[in-house]
Amino acid sequence: MDPRELRKVFGLFTTGVAVVTAINPGPEPVGVTANSVTSVSLDPPLILWCLANKSSSLKAFALDAPFAIHILAVHQADIALHFARSGASKFEVDAWWRSHPTPPDIEGALARIECRVSHLYPGGDHTIIVGAIDQVSARNAQPLAFHASRFGRFSNDQSASEVSPWTDPRGTWL
Fold first, then answer.
1. d(CA 83, CA 87)
2. What is the DSSP string of 71-119?
Protein backbone atom coordinates (compact mmCIF):
# COMPACT_ATOMS: atom_id res chain seq x y z
CA MET A 1 0.00 0.00 0.00
CA ASP A 2 1.26 3.46 -0.89
CA PRO A 3 1.87 5.35 2.41
CA ARG A 4 1.16 8.71 0.75
CA GLU A 5 -2.24 7.54 -0.50
CA LEU A 6 -3.08 6.06 2.91
CA ARG A 7 -2.09 9.30 4.64
CA LYS A 8 -4.28 11.23 2.19
CA VAL A 9 -7.25 8.99 2.98
CA PHE A 10 -6.63 9.21 6.76
CA GLY A 11 -6.57 13.00 6.34
CA LEU A 12 -10.16 12.99 5.11
CA PHE A 13 -11.30 12.26 8.66
CA THR A 14 -11.73 15.71 10.20
CA THR A 15 -10.20 15.93 13.68
CA GLY A 16 -9.45 18.42 16.37
CA VAL A 17 -5.87 19.49 17.00
CA ALA A 18 -4.00 19.09 20.28
CA VAL A 19 -0.56 19.74 21.71
CA VAL A 20 0.66 17.18 24.22
CA THR A 21 3.25 18.34 26.74
CA ALA A 22 5.41 16.28 29.09
CA ILE A 23 8.87 16.14 30.66
CA ASN A 24 11.84 14.31 29.18
CA PRO A 25 14.45 13.04 31.63
CA GLY A 26 16.86 15.86 32.34
CA PRO A 27 14.34 17.45 32.98
CA GLU A 28 13.46 19.00 29.62
CA PRO A 29 9.93 20.03 28.63
CA VAL A 30 8.60 18.49 25.42
CA GLY A 31 5.59 19.22 23.27
CA VAL A 32 4.16 17.55 20.18
CA THR A 33 1.17 18.27 17.97
CA ALA A 34 -1.33 15.42 17.74
CA ASN A 35 -4.64 14.81 16.04
CA SER A 36 -4.84 11.16 17.09
CA VAL A 37 -6.50 11.99 20.43
CA THR A 38 -9.64 10.09 21.45
CA SER A 39 -11.63 9.40 24.57
CA VAL A 40 -11.51 5.82 25.84
CA SER A 41 -13.59 5.60 29.02
CA LEU A 42 -15.59 7.72 31.45
CA ASP A 43 -15.21 5.24 34.31
CA PRO A 44 -12.32 5.16 34.86
CA PRO A 45 -11.54 8.38 32.95
CA LEU A 46 -9.10 7.40 30.16
CA ILE A 47 -7.87 9.05 26.96
CA LEU A 48 -5.44 7.89 24.28
CA TRP A 49 -3.23 9.33 21.60
CA CYS A 50 -0.47 8.03 19.34
CA LEU A 51 3.16 9.13 19.01
CA ALA A 52 5.63 8.15 16.28
CA ASN A 53 8.23 5.68 17.50
CA LYS A 54 10.97 7.83 15.93
CA SER A 55 9.96 10.87 18.04
CA SER A 56 12.67 12.16 20.35
CA SER A 57 9.88 12.92 22.85
CA LEU A 58 8.84 9.27 23.27
CA LYS A 59 11.05 8.72 26.33
CA ALA A 60 8.94 11.31 28.23
CA PHE A 61 5.97 8.93 28.15
CA ALA A 62 7.07 6.12 30.46
CA LEU A 63 4.50 4.39 32.67
CA ASP A 64 3.08 6.73 35.33
CA ALA A 65 4.74 9.81 33.75
CA PRO A 66 2.64 12.99 33.83
CA PHE A 67 1.51 14.66 30.62
CA ALA A 68 -1.09 17.18 29.51
CA ILE A 69 -3.24 17.27 26.38
CA HIS A 70 -4.21 20.77 25.22
CA ILE A 71 -7.12 20.98 22.77
CA LEU A 72 -6.31 23.97 20.59
CA ALA A 73 -8.64 26.85 19.79
CA VAL A 74 -9.21 28.10 16.24
CA HIS A 75 -6.71 30.96 16.61
CA GLN A 76 -3.83 28.59 17.56
CA ALA A 77 -2.78 27.13 14.18
CA ASP A 78 0.65 28.75 14.62
CA ILE A 79 1.08 26.86 17.90
CA ALA A 80 0.12 23.59 16.20
CA LEU A 81 2.76 24.22 13.53
CA HIS A 82 5.38 25.18 16.14
CA PHE A 83 4.94 21.90 18.02
CA ALA A 84 4.72 19.83 14.83
CA ARG A 85 8.42 20.56 14.18
CA SER A 86 10.91 17.92 15.14
CA GLY A 87 14.16 18.58 16.89
CA ALA A 88 15.18 21.61 18.91
CA SER A 89 13.69 22.78 22.15
CA LYS A 90 10.22 24.28 21.83
CA PHE A 91 10.09 25.98 25.24
CA GLU A 92 12.02 28.67 27.05
CA VAL A 93 13.05 27.07 30.33
CA ASP A 94 13.81 29.10 33.44
CA ALA A 95 15.36 28.17 36.79
CA TRP A 96 11.97 28.07 38.55
CA TRP A 97 10.62 25.46 36.12
CA ARG A 98 13.76 23.33 36.49
CA SER A 99 13.13 23.12 40.24
CA HIS A 100 9.35 22.45 39.75
CA PRO A 101 9.08 20.48 36.48
CA THR A 102 5.49 19.92 35.34
CA PRO A 103 4.05 19.40 31.86
CA PRO A 104 4.02 22.91 30.35
CA ASP A 105 0.73 24.74 29.85
CA ILE A 106 -0.33 25.97 26.41
CA GLU A 107 -1.92 29.32 27.18
CA GLY A 108 -5.23 30.04 25.44
CA ALA A 109 -6.04 26.38 24.71
CA LEU A 110 -9.69 25.37 24.57
CA ALA A 111 -9.07 22.65 27.19
CA ARG A 112 -6.28 21.05 29.24
CA ILE A 113 -6.47 17.40 30.25
CA GLU A 114 -3.88 16.40 32.87
CA CYS A 115 -2.97 12.71 32.84
CA ARG A 116 -0.52 10.02 33.83
CA VAL A 117 0.57 7.28 31.43
CA SER A 118 -1.35 4.14 32.37
CA HIS A 119 -0.65 1.89 29.35
CA LEU A 120 1.65 1.79 26.34
CA TYR A 121 0.85 -0.40 23.33
CA PRO A 122 2.78 -1.04 20.12
CA GLY A 123 0.94 0.26 17.07
CA GLY A 124 3.10 -0.26 13.98
CA ASP A 125 5.32 2.80 13.54
CA HIS A 126 3.59 4.52 16.50
CA THR A 127 3.13 3.90 20.22
CA ILE A 128 -0.41 4.08 21.57
CA ILE A 129 -0.36 6.00 24.84
CA VAL A 130 -3.30 5.62 27.22
CA GLY A 131 -3.58 8.22 29.94
CA ALA A 132 -5.47 8.08 33.22
CA ILE A 133 -7.09 11.49 33.55
CA ASP A 134 -6.40 13.36 36.80
CA GLN A 135 -7.88 16.78 36.09
CA VAL A 136 -9.59 18.74 33.31
CA SER A 137 -10.23 22.41 32.62
CA ALA A 138 -11.96 24.11 29.70
CA ARG A 139 -12.93 27.51 28.40
CA ASN A 140 -15.47 28.69 25.87
CA ALA A 141 -13.91 29.09 22.40
CA GLN A 142 -14.10 27.63 18.91
CA PRO A 143 -11.93 24.53 18.28
CA LEU A 144 -9.18 24.27 15.68
CA ALA A 145 -10.04 21.62 13.08
CA PHE A 146 -7.78 19.66 10.72
CA HIS A 147 -8.90 18.17 7.39
CA ALA A 148 -7.02 17.19 4.21
CA SER A 149 -3.73 18.66 5.52
CA ARG A 150 -5.33 22.04 6.26
CA PHE A 151 -6.37 23.85 9.42
CA GLY A 152 -9.85 25.29 9.63
CA ARG A 153 -12.77 25.98 11.88
CA PHE A 154 -15.78 23.96 12.92
CA SER A 155 -19.03 25.29 11.53
CA ASN A 156 -21.87 24.81 13.96
CA ASP A 157 -24.91 24.24 11.77
CA GLN A 158 -27.67 25.89 13.80
CA SER A 159 -30.36 24.10 11.74
CA ALA A 160 -29.07 20.67 12.79
CA SER A 161 -30.61 19.15 15.88
CA GLU A 162 -28.43 18.80 18.96
CA VAL A 163 -27.44 15.23 19.81
CA SER A 164 -27.23 14.12 23.41
CA PRO A 165 -24.34 11.74 24.17
CA TRP A 166 -26.56 10.05 26.76
CA THR A 167 -29.45 8.98 24.52
CA ASP A 168 -29.98 7.54 21.07
CA PRO A 169 -32.21 9.38 18.57
CA ARG A 170 -35.27 7.52 19.93
CA GLY A 171 -34.61 8.91 23.42
CA THR A 172 -33.16 5.85 25.15
CA TRP A 173 -29.60 4.93 25.93
CA LEU A 174 -28.29 2.09 23.77
1. 10
2. EPBGGGHHHHHHHH--SS--S---HHHHHS--PPP-TT-SEEEEEEEEE
Answer yes or no: pTM beyond 0.70.
yes
Q: What span, in angstroms and rounded, lies between the C-alpha atoms of 84 and 55? A: 11
Domains of the chain listed by start with CATH number: 3-151 (2.30.110.10)
Q: Which of 53, 77, 72, 75 is nearest to 129 (CA)?
A: 53
Distance CA 120, CA 16 (A): 22
Amino acid at residue number 8: K
> Tens-digit pLDDT profile for the chain (174 aa)?
898 998 889 888 889 999 999 999 888 999 999 999 999 999 999 999 999 999 999 999 999 999 999 999 999 999 999 999 887 678 887 888 888 889 999 999 999 999 999 999 999 999 999 999 999 999 999 999 998 888 988 877 766 666 666 665 555 544
